[in-house]
Design brief:
The protein is mostly helical. 49% of the residues lie in helices and 10% in strands. The chain is built from 13 helices and nine strands. It has a three-stranded mixed beta sheet with strand order 1-5-2, with helices on one face. Strands 3-4 form a two-stranded antiparallel sheet. Strands 6-9 form a two-stranded antiparallel sheet. A hairpin with a 2-residue loop joins strand 3 and strand 4. Helix 6 packs across helix 13. The structure holds protoporphyrin IX containing FE. Protoporphyrin IX containing FE binds next to helix 6 and helix 13.
Length: 338
Amino acid sequence: MVHITEPAIVKEVLANNYQFQKLRRGNPLIKLLLTGLADAESEQWSKHRKIINPAFHVEKLKSIYIPGSRFIPTKRNKRMKEIGSEVKASIRSIINKRIIAMKEGESNNEDLLGILLDSNYKEIKQGDNTSGLSIDEVIEECKLFYFAGQETTGNLLLWTMVLLAQHSDWQAQARDEVSLVFGGQKPDTDGLNRLKIINLIFYEVLRLYPPVVLLSRMIHQETKLGDITLPAGSFLQLHTMLLHHDRDIWGDDVKEFKPQRFSEGVLKATKGQASYFPFGGGPRICIGMNFALLEAKMALAMILQRFRFDISPSYSHAPHTIITLQPQFGAHVILHKL
Ligand code: HEM
């Protein structure tokens, strides 16, 4: 296992996604939740990514809504299997309804699934019989959107609530910005894209508490990396969390919540180094990044319009990783209606 905390090496690994591949998943929980694009490699990855990409184009995000020892037959494993089949059956029935509607000529561009099916249909029409995704593959992508989108964005929002509850000056600035842009109206996409202060806040929350704390890779053949040659089969871990908290890169205030450090952009804050990558990087950068930031801005703006919030005396600070980084004992925040 090679642990990487050098920005230049992080850049090299992320840029060469065919050499440095994601791990084949052994963990049954991750397997249940995360196959599809996030787990695909080489040609399979580029095929999936090409078909899925249109679903995440910024223009399309304007009106989007997301619908809503392991082989031993223990009670828990049986339940996991049952849940797996139930989820699959329920997604399959949603997809079948959509396909029927599409065949009857109904337009289907209103949400991620519609755009994905549309893009897949176009790919099948243009290519040979190996092109396009099968229904089972579409089901895996839907599960992935749900999990990858839910846990990560949810934790970004939780940590934002905790930090703004602890830093009432930033909470007030964020609320002032929301009222300047929207007044009491429901936030819209154009307005959300103009929220500068909230953007800085999210960048800083993602620096301090990145939902994905490290990226794992492996190599299948001997590979040169920096000055060393690694044998085939080596595992690599790129330490997002450690780099985000590196005093030599960020300065003596590295542990403090200071959104203003991003006021002139990420490049300036990192002095151009690959020392900040909450969404990964290179060709396999998070496909849902813009969607996640838009969704989190929408939720935060609506909360700020309605509540002031403080940290509760019962809050106990314990960042803890169960796949994503989360507050182990919850985010105890007291809301006051405005
Ligand atoms: C704050 C929210 C989010 C964070 C911090 C986040 C973080 C990440 C990171 C670090 C990676 C790269 C993993 C690696 O290189 O090993 C990734 C990939 C991915 N993310 Fe996200 N993500 C977020 C939201 C979302 C959302 C909302 C979706 C979908 C609806 C999504 C879908 C994906 C997919 C499909 C990949 C795999 C892309 C590929 O391998 O080509 N993510 N995400």
